[in-house]
Amino acid sequence: MSKGSEGATPGFLVWRLSMKWRTAVDRAVAPLGLTHAQYSLVASLHGMHRTGERPSQRRLADHTGLEPLYVSKLARSLESAGLVTRERDPRDPRAVQLALTEQGRETTRRAIEVVHALLEQLLAPLGGLDSERTHGLARDLAALLDAPLDPSHENENRQEQS
């Protein structure tokens, strides 16, 4: 554990790790013309398309955890860059479906390779991407992501205890 992490709360460590990861991914995908947030969108689109899904902007927002308005802004910038198409959903005229262009697929494939190598570096202290420690960490992180957080509920509990 680094000196700056001794005695740190799990929340602080999660925040620091997420900032470290975001910065590293931003730097790694910048030569491909992407930001970390844009990478999150195109990589998610890539994965969803592989399973036969053509998601709406809303579905992509839910999947990535990004705000729908931010996903819309990112999708427009990716469309301007020629990486994504945005089309009205024939089943719901209010919804916009997203798809990768040919250029978007190629850029995403290259970005995924770069980020995968970066992930191998990050996880090396745990034994690498396929180690049992990494699988355990992934299970723990998924459990934390699935746990509901209601800040107003926490404030109510503190007030009741006072």
What's the β-strand tally? 2
Helix content: 55-70%
Number of helices: 7
Largest sheet: 2 strands, antiparallel
Strand order of the largest sheet: 1-2
Radius of gyration: 19 Å
Low-confidence stretches: none
End-to-end span in angstroms? Answer: 36 Å
- Report the portion of residues in β strands: 5-15%
- Secondary structural class: mainly alpha
Overall 3D form: globular
Series of H and E elements: HHHHEEHHH
**Average pLDDT reading:** 90
Written account of the structure:
The protein is globular. The longest helix has 22 residues, at 102-123. Helices cover 64% and strands 9% of the residues. Strands 1-2 form a two-stranded antiparallel sheet. It is mainly α.
What's the SSE blueprint?
Elements: H1 10-29, H2 36-50, H3 57-64, H4 68-80, E1 84-89, E2 92-100, H5 102-123, H6 132-146, H7 151-161
Antiparallel strand pairs: 1-2
Helix pairs in contact: 1-5, 2-5, 3-4
